[in-house]
Amino acid sequence: MECLGIPVDHRLRTLIRKIRPIGISKVTGAHLQILREFGESLVGEDDEPINISELNFALDLAGPDTTGGILVLLLQPLETQMYKNGFIADVDDCKTLKAIRQLVSLASNQLSGLDNVSVFDMLPFLTEEYEDKDIFRTAHEALVRMIRAKAPSVVICCARGTSHNRFVRDIHGLGIGKTFSSKELQNGASTFLRVNAFHPSYSVNYNRSYSCFRRLLILEFVKAFGLQQSQWSEEDWMSSLRSDCQKKSTGLCKNGAPNSDTRWKEILDSLNLFLRGNNFFQHYSFSPIGYIQERLISTGFSWLCCDAGLLLDEIIDKHTFDSGIAQQTQDYVQGWCLAMWSDLKMNAEYGCGLFDHREIILKKSHLYEPLAFRIHTTLIKFLCDMNLSFSRNALGCYAHDLKAQRNAFFRFSRSMEDTLESSRQEAAVDQLNQAFSAMGI
After folding, report:
1. Which of 354, 332, 352 is nearest to 344 (CA)?
2. pLDDT tens, position by position, 51-97
3. Which of 7, 134, 222, 407 might form a disulfide with 107, Cβ 3.0–4.6 angstroms?
4. Are 272 and 332 in contact (CB under 8 A)?
């Protein structure tokens, strides 16, 4: 189970699978008509009306035309957004909307999409080039009327800003990692529940190599769909994630993001410390499995691997790969492989592999406990993938396939969360069997 390019936390998956179809309201609201009238009242600098394709796109996003359901609130359209290839393609061209579509699909247990979850801009049609305060006031008044007419059951608040209108201020996001002290808000004759989130662009554009922000977005969207079906309860780990994201965001705002070399070394150092400190490279002994399981979760090991993949992805896109990152990667991978198999020989031939891959390809774990075996096997596959990400050239130097290394870290992360989910399910079955046994069943 994946979303936004990362695995879904194993603790959320059961909650997602509990989501069931909800009947769509048969009552038609006036929110699309209000949006249309506001859009048609706007004129550009050349006194031309708003482009009909842009108007149609906004109406598509704000649909369906029925009342109730879940509403996602964003701030305003991107100035560079194009409206010429049809709804699906235009959504694909906007990373924010593409992320919203993925989040809605996941959180609804793949029962909803942008065709049946409404997305409103708090400043509809008004890109950053608009500076007229009167237009902003009119836009917010139109927004209030739209929400009154829509009468949603849950509102996901992803936008921040200022407004003269108290109701609009009450549906602004609070900032990363915060929650509303009172979720319920009066909406004319009805009420709705608020879920604090943040703009997806913060995680998929500006801080794309930090998986914690993507995880938090996933959590808040899942929470919204859970609240809609009255089956949500907070867990301690959720508060910890919000707190971690809040601290991380504050640090990035205050100090800026570290350069790629520094961050890469921090990630590799943390991975190395965990792997060596918990005897992951031992074939016939292993730390107690309960301890390992708890450590995997509490240290965020899966998410360190995920951050590594996201950072490499960013390095690839920005072409910022340098010799420092290359050497760090080679040194750690070489050390990990030798810690697992001390008799490995370096690849002396032209072609793939830091080590002779023929010596690695059939390696397997000899651990007997099922969970330990799965974790160990996942590590072996990771080392195999990383070994093949290097290739020896005619000069005896090793070249790096960054995409292969990125994919290896992503695979490692996903496999770990899948393994933790399986372990959680098996533990639940064991508890149920023990309960039945105690009852003599």
Report:
1. 354
2. 899 999 999 999 999 999 999 999 999 888 888 888 999 999 999 99
3. 222
4. yes
